[in-house]
Design a protein that fits this description.
Layout lengths: L2 E5 L10 H4 L11 H4 L7 H14 L4 H8 L8 H10 L4 E10 H10 L8 E5 L1 E3 L5 E3 L16 H14 L6 E6 L5 H6 L5 E4 L4 H11 L7 E2 L5 H13 L1
Helix pairs in contact: 5-10
Pfam family, one: Put_Phosphatase
Protein name: PHOP2 phosphatase
Cofactor: Mg(2+)
């Protein structure tokens, strides 16, 4: 009996978007219009690359970025939920699949001492260059028309499950916890015994209910949450079963 918990990061584990939170480091805490308007749909990672160049050009150093990022608030109830998962690791494998980046997630999880809760983090690779600039790359290449070009979360999930099967690990149930439009693709991959947990009022919930209205509902169960305490209540029931 083992359960796989799959978490998105921004607006799910933390209550903000880590990529926009970093703008607090910019001069006057904002980006110039030209830079802000340079984003093209599906090309967020390239856009963030330009943001990091701007911060570097303005003398924003690693330690200042780190101080800023570790003030990002966790979602209501999330600290308790992650604590509960950490105490029950024999029952739960736990991964993050996120369109943020490895540096931000690592800083935030380590500062709160939650890095041990997660078995793997799948996100855009990032590092500081020799000149002290933060750089970010696309996570992978894929052929999914529904997803941003740097990351298809379904592909990540499928490859992870295949690798686990080779190791002899299969899961009684997958619990997918997320909020965004890019979480729909992996949710549509889930089977009827699995459960999707979209955050209330966010894009994923709206897209799932739109599918149901179009009479092509997702195959898995759906449980909407607004506080991570509700997720914890569900997991406690699973554990008792």
């Amino acid at each position: 009996m083992k359960f796989l918990l799959v978490f998105d990061f921004d607006h799910t584990i933390v209550d903000e978007n880590s990529d926009t939170w970093i703008v607090k480091c910019a001069p006057e805490k904002k980006l110039p219009n030209g830079l802000r308007n340079s984003y093209r749909p599906g090309h967020w990672t390239e856009y963030m690359g330009r943001v990091f160049v701007y911060l570097g050009d303005n003398g924003v150093k690693e330690d200042e970025m780190k101080r800023t990022m570790t003030t990002i608030p966790f979602t209501v109830g999330m600290v308790d939920l992650l604590g509960f998962i950490g105490e029950n690791k024999e029952l739960f494998d736990c991964i993050i699949v996120s369109d943020s980046n490895a540096v931000f997630i690592d800083w935030i999880l380590k500062a709160a001492d939650f890095h041990k809760v997660f078995d793997e983090v799948f996100t855009n690779p990032a590092a500081f260059s020799s000149t002290g600039y933060l750089t970010v790359q696309n996570f992978h290449a894929h052929h999914c028309a529904k997803c941003p070009k740097n990351l298809c979360k379904k592909k990540v999930l499928k490859e992870f499950l295949d690798k686990q099967l080779e190791r002899g690990v299969s899961y009684t149930q997958i619990v997918y916890i997320g909020d965004g439009g890019n979480d729909l693709c992996p949710v549509m991959f889930l089977k009827k015994d699995d459960i999707a947990m979209p955050r209330q009022g966010y894009t994923l919930e709206k897209k799932i209910s739109q599918l149901a209205q179009d009479l092509s509902p997702v195959e898995c169960s759906v449980l909407v949450w607004s506080s991570a305490t509700e997720i914890m209540s569900y997991l406690k029931v699973l554990v008792k079963e």
